[in-house]
Fold this sequence. Notes:
Pfam families: PNPOx_N
Largest sheet: 11 strands, antiparallel
Structural class: alpha+beta
Helix content: 10-25%
Radius of gyration: 17 Å
Organism: Saccharothrix mutabilis subsp. mutabilis
Domain Pyridoxamine 5'-phosphate oxidase N-terminal: 25-129
CATH architecture: Roll
Number of helices: 3
Order of helices and strands: EHEEEEHEEHEEEE
Number of strands: 11
InterPro entries: F420H2_bilvrd_red/Heme_oxyg, Pyridox_Oxase_N, Split_barrel_FMN-bd
CATH class: Mainly Beta
Protein name: Pyridoxamine 5'-phosphate oxidase family protein
Amino acid sequence: MPRTEVDPRYGDPDAPATPWPVAERALSSAELYRLTTVRPDGRPHVTPLIAVWHTDALHFCTGADERKARNLTANPRVVLTTGDNALHGGLDVVVEGVAVRVADEAGLRVLAAEWESKYGPEWRFEVVEGGFANPHGTALVFRVEPTTAFGFAKSPYSQTRYRF
């Protein structure tokens, strides 16, 4: 379990910390995430994508020639965000970590099953050497274990930091 703390500067001073299991459920059940990587020239790059929460980490995939994959080659540090697009309710979660490539066949098979279970047969992936089959080549799969995460509750407002 991560160390949890509330920063009273960013919300109701009496708001409790959002428990990690609540943030973890939000990470697990979200359908869409935003991935932020850093371009070689230092500019940020943000893109929406789907992901799965499995064994205490978020997993996403991308084509080897896509901007985000090229960015990760130079700098594997990322931020993944998800949440509710509402001002007065819900929970937004931000995960900071390092994207590590998953290339072992057994791990890829488990993750392919996770994607299909969560998103349905439209997202059935065939495991090939080093990733998932993709019409344009191989989709690389990455694992991001949180190093730090934040939960932004919006009723009442609060900011909880999770340190791993």
